[in-house]
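Title: Request for sanity check on Helix-turn-helix domain-containing protein prediction

Description:
We are preparing a figure and want to confirm that the structure record we downloaded matches what your pipeline produces today. Could someone re-run it with the sequence below and paste the raw C-alpha cells into this thread? We only need the C-alpha cell string, no images.
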Amino acid sequence: MYHSSLPSEAASGLVTFFYQMKMAPMITGELGELLMPSGTGILGIHLQGRYQVNGFYSYDGPLPEYYLVGQQTRSYRLKVENEEADIFGIAIRPTAIWRLTKRPAIQFTDRPTPLEEVFAEAWLDTIKQIAEKPSFEKRVEKAEEFISEILSDLDLSKTLVDYALELIFEKKGCISTRELCKELHVSERHLQHLFRQQVGLSPLQYARITRFNSIFVEFTRAGESPDLPFLTSFFNYYDISHFFKDFKAYSGESPSQFHLERFSLLKELVANQPYLTQVQNIRK
C-alpha cells in the first residue's frame, strides 16, 4: 500500500511530497523490493515495525525508528521481516537537509541518521505526535504544521545551487557541469564544492540521476517495446550502450533483464505520480 500527496504552497519551501508505505513480511531469502535514488532527502517516521535496507554504500540493516537520510546514489532494496512495516515519509527538497541541520549535506548521503542525533527534543516530540495521528491525512496535516513552524526560522533565500537545480530540472538532467557553470558564471570547482555542501552530491551526479529517472519513467511506461534509439537520443545519451551502463548502475540489471512486474512496490511508485520525477516538479 502506498499513498502520496503534494505539499501546500506554504510547505513547498522544504517539502517535495508526503507519502505512507506499508508492506507485509517477506519470505525468508527474498532480496526485497527495489528502489532507486529519487533526488530527494527523506525524513522517515516508522508507524509500525521496521524496514530494513540493503544497498546503501555506508549502511545496511534496520532503519532507525525516526530518521533523516540525504541523497541516495544507487539502487537499494527494502525488506520487511517478522512483522508488517508501515512508514510515513516526508520527501524534502535537495537543499533542505543543509538548511535544516546547518551541516554539510554530504554527511547524510546514503546514511540514514537517527533524528535524535540531528534535531532538538521539541522537534522529536512533534515527530512522535505526527506518528500518533490516526490517518494519512491527519499525519500530513500535522506535518504541515511542523514544517510551517520550522520555516519561520529558516532563511529560504535562493542560493547558486538552487538556480543550478532549476536548470537541471528544466533540462531533465540533460545538462553538463560546464554548461551549468557557463550559465551561472561560476567556476566548476566552486559549484562542485557548493553542491557537496548543500545537496550531498556533485552537480554531475545529481544531473545524471535526474536524467536517468526521467528516461526510466518513460522506459517503464512504454511497456514491452520501448523505442530505445528515440529515448536515448531525446535524453542526450551518447549512444545506447551509455544508457545501458546507467540503467545497470541504477537498477542493478540491464534493460533486457529488467521487468517492472517483478517489483510490485516500484511499479506502484512509478504508476501515477512517479516518485522518481516529483522533485523535478517542485514549485520555484
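Thanks, this matches our download. The first strand starts at residue 2 and ends at 5.
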